[in-house]
Structures are given as structure tokens and as C-alpha cells.
Amino acid sequence: MTAFLIENMAPIMFGALVLFLLLGYPVAFALAANGLFFALLGIELGLFRPDFLQALPERVYGVMNNDTLLAIPFFTFMGLILERSGMAEDLLDTIGQLFGPVRGGLAYAVVFVGALLAATTGVVAASVISMGLISLPIMLRYGYDRRLASGVIAASGTLAQIIPPSLVLIVMADQLGRSVGDMYEGAFIPGIVLAALYAGYVFLVGVFNPKAAPGLPPEAQTLQDADGQTRRLSVLVVTVISGVIGYLTISNFTKVGAGADFVVLTMTVAVAVSFVIAVVNKISGLGLLSRMAEQTVFVMVPPLGLIFLVLGTIFIGLATPTEGGAMGAAGAMLLAIAKRRLTWELVRQATESTAKLSAFVVFILVGARVFSLTFFGVSGHVWVEHLLTSLPGGQVGFLIFVNLLIFILAFFLDFFELAFIAVPLIGPVADKLGIDLIWFGVMLGVNMQTSFMHPPFGFALFYLRSVAPREPYKDRVTGATMEPVTTGQIYWGAVPFVVIQLIMVALVLLFPSMVMHYKNSGPVVDQKKAMEQLDNLTPKMDDAPPALDFGTPPKIQ
Q1: What does the pLDDT look like over 302-316, one tens digit per residue?
Q2: Which GO molecular-function terms appear in the entry (predicted)?
Q3: I need a labelling partner for 341 at 20 to 30 A (CA). Which of 49, 124, 372, 431 fits?
């Protein structure tokens, strides 16, 4: 028995951890207890050196001294302030009016606002709860299928985990030992493509089942000019003009040529131009823009301005992610002040929620450090490496196995738990196989999104369940009695979007350039100039000092 334990300590330890988690013990304590128990057992068997435990205080201190993880409370606080300041409500109301008459227009608005909230808040709970409270009653009022409505709200809220500034990407970068800025830049395009796939699914539902996603009736469209016309074309015109000016400005007056930083900077200039046009139109009364176009611009400017403040400064290298998060938190408070919604109670609630989430993350990370210390001490990393590198198919076989493993574990574990338990084990193997860790991290981030959508343990589904009506209620606008949203409808509504997320994982695997573009935005080295400078530093033969002859004795004068 002793020989068996010594031979298989690593797999037994990993299996014991899975057993503790399935029994329902808190993850942080299950990790730490498992690590300490097997450390003592390993010492008793002579397999684990007691000296390893002396490194534990330094590891715990390293968690608290980690500057990268400071970005988590900043972005969490920013998201909670924005969620409670009414920005989501204004966005959903205006964008819902903009897309309203189109079949499935409200669902398109939810996807669009979900992507925008993801790029400003980075917090799934804030996005799902906001859109569930605001848009779900409206979608039910106008006859949307309950499965489609609940699914699109939950899925759009999870975009906050792949579109920067995402908490999952911060943790992923920290665990893989890579730059958070590079991880953000690599995830930018996959996040936008995923949002487009959600919109594509809504389009297909509207085509094949029009009753499931109707357009808004005329009486629900309130953003009209004095003559009763909406003139949505005005929105398209100001968007095209602003976009062209932004593109020409960045192309001709900066050296930024491609990548996510080019997109963010172009968007920033375009937003500034559209804001100037809207302000001039409002002050002068020229009527250049319709009421809908003017309202759309004024509602879109604050979140887009915050996106530049956070992501723009990170992408162009002016700020680290931690500094960007601090600026974003300050910007969110300024927006709340501008809307006259910043109160002491709001700040207190946001601070308490931020402290709880940050403590949750730190406790899991401390437990993970205890577990990993013992796991490495019993050569668990060698066991994992041999197990994964011996898979058939090389890199392809490894990637398929890892994605299946993460997908299955996501049924039971939260993304923080996946990032702290699984990623430290598989990351070094991916690096040894020659896989780019930024691309690997983004791919895992997309896969981990499914942990929010898996029935029956998806957190996004729990968030939506907490705000969806459980009993029949009377609609405040129409006065009609509305049926509740059942848990089964929420679960079935999530299934198509889980499939879409898996399709996105396959797209990242098949088209790695969606992520690898981050390498093109780094500093470019001119090899010719570098060689010239190197030649200038190399001493010429003519300038060399005379050689010393050690074989001839010096002459004495």
C-alpha cells in the first residue's frame, strides 16, 4: 500500500481535490486542506521534503504583493458604480428604440449593449442583472419567446468575461505569466466576433420563427421628431462621417497601423467628432440631426469615452492595466456625479461588493498556492506533463483534450476556480509544446465562458433567475397579466448560446490570427539600422591598441 501511494501520489491528490469539490466544500478551503494533508502524508512517506513548506509564507505574501491582481478590485468597483448609475438603463432604452422596428430589434439591442457594458464594466453579474431588470419585462411585454429573451440576456452578460477589461483575462495573464495588455489586445477581436455570432443567431430566429422575435409596434417608438418621423438614417449618416474622419486622422497623423489599438483610437476620434456635431446641432438648432440621432450620440459618448480612457491608454502603452482600472474607477464616479446619482449609499454598496469579490479571489489564490506547492513537491507537474505530452496528435491532440477537459470541468467549477486550479497545470505543458500562451489564454477564456451558461450551475443563469418574474404579474404599461419565466425556459434558452460559444472556440483554433494580431502592434525593430549601430559600437582594427609581446622580457634602461 505504501509503495502504491508513493507511486501514485500526484493522481491520488488530484482525485481527492475533485472529491472535496463534489462534496460541496468551499474551494479555497478544499484546496488548502488538500495541500496540507498530502504534504504531511508525503513527509511521512519520505516523498515530500519539509523544506518546501518554508516557502509557503513567501508564496502567500506574493499573492498579496501581486500588482497585476490590483486591477480586479478597480474594474469591479468601476462596473458596480456604472451599473447603479443608470448607464445601462439609458443605453437599453435608446438602443432599443434605434433597433426597435426591426424583427428581433430588442434582442439586437441587448447584444449591442451587452458588448458595450462588457467593455466598460467587465463584471458579468452587473451586466446580466442590469439587462434582466430593464430589458426582460419589455421583451416579454411585446411577445418575445421566453427562451430567446432569457438566453440572449444571459449570453450577452457573459461577454464581460472575454471583451476587455475582463477579470478572467487578468487572472489568465497572471497565471500564464504574460502581459495583461497583450491578453486584452488578443481577446479584442474574438470578443467582437462572439457578439456578432449572438446577433447572427437572433437573425436566424427572426427569419425562421418571426413570432419569437417581433419588432416594436409604432406606439412604443417615442424618439420621434416634431412631425412624427424617427429618421434613423440620420444615425447612419453621422456614424459614417465620424468613422471616416476618425480613420483618416489615425491613418495620416499617427504611426498606428493595425490591431486593436488602431480600432480603439479610430473609435475615439469618431466619438469625439460625433459628439461635437451633436453639441453644435443642439446649441444652434440647425436640425442637422434627428432627435433619435442626437439622443443616440449623447447616450453613447460616456461609455465609449470610458472605453478609451481604460483600453485606449492600455493599448497605446500610456498605462498599465492596474493604472487603467484606477482611471476607469475614477471615470465611473465622475459619470455618476454628472448624472447626479452618486450617493454615499451607492459608494458603500459598491465598495462592500468589491471587497467581497476581491477577498474571494485572494482566498482561492492562497488555497491554490498551498495545493500547487505540495503538488509540485510530489512531482505532480511531471505527472501532468507526461500525461498531456503523451497524448496522440501532438499540439492538436493536446488542444482538443484541454478544451474538452475545461468544458466538462465548467459544469461544476467557476471560472476563478478553473483559472487557479487547471491553468497552472496545463500552461507549462502548452509552453513546452511551443503554443503561444496569449493565444492559449484567450482560447481558454472563450471556453470558460461556458461555465457561466452551463445548466444547471451557470452563474449567469442564477443571476437572471434572481431578477426574472417567478409568478404571474401585471405589466405596468399594458395592464395585462403576464406569465412568469420558468427555470426550465432559462436553461433551454441558454443551450443555443453554449453551442455558439463552442463554435467560437473552434474559430479561435482554426483562425489563430484573430488573436495573434497582438504581435503586430508591438515596437518594430529596423534590423538595418540596428546592425549599423552595432557596427559603430564595434572597435575597428585600426583603432585597436598595440599587441603586447609577453614572450620578450622588458629592456632595462
Answers
A1: 888 887 778 777 777
A2: transmembrane transporter activity
A3: 124
Going by the DSSP 8-state scheme, the letter that residue 512 receives in this structure is T
Q: Please tell me whether residue 540 adopts helix, strand or coil conformation.
A: coil
Once rounded to an integer, what is the mean pLDDT over residues 32-53?
83
Find the helix or strand (DSSP H, E) in which 345 lies.
helix 344-377
**Roughly what angle, to the nearest 10 degrees, separates helices 105-120 and 124-141?**
160
Cell matching residue 9? 501520489
Kindly report the CA angle at 343 between 338 and 345, in degrees rounded to 5?
Answer: 150
C-alpha grid cell, residue 241: 462621417
Give CA–CA dist 130/142, Å, rounded.
19
Alpha-carbon distance of 456 to 73, in angstroms, equals 28
User: pLDDT-based confidence at 193, cuts 50/70/90?
Assistant: very high
pLDDT tens for residues 341-373? 888 888 898 899 888 888 888 888 888 888 888
Whether the CB-CB separation of 162 and 187 falls below 8 Å is answered with yes
Give the helix ranges, DSSP H, for 163-288: 167-176, 180-208, 233-253, 260-284
Give 79's contacts (C-beta < 8 A, 6+ positions apart): 120, 121, 122, 123, 126, 127, 160, 332
CA angle 335, 338, 341 (to 5 degrees): 85
Instruction: Over range 234-250, report the average pLDDT.
Output: 87
DSSP 414: -
- Please tell me the predicted confidence (pLDDT) of residue 528: 52
Contacts of 190 (CB under 8 A, 6+ apart): 162, 442, 446, 504, 507, 508, 514, 515
Give the pLDDT confidence score for residue 122 in this predicted structure. 65
3-state SS assignment for residue 122: coil
Listed in sequence order, the residues at least 6 apart from 221 whose beta carbon sits closer than 8 Å to its beta carbon are 97, 100, 101, 230
As given in the structure block, the three cell numbers for residue 435 are 503554443
Residue 342 CB-half CA count within 13 A: 15
Round to whole Å and give the CA distance between 372 and 32: 9
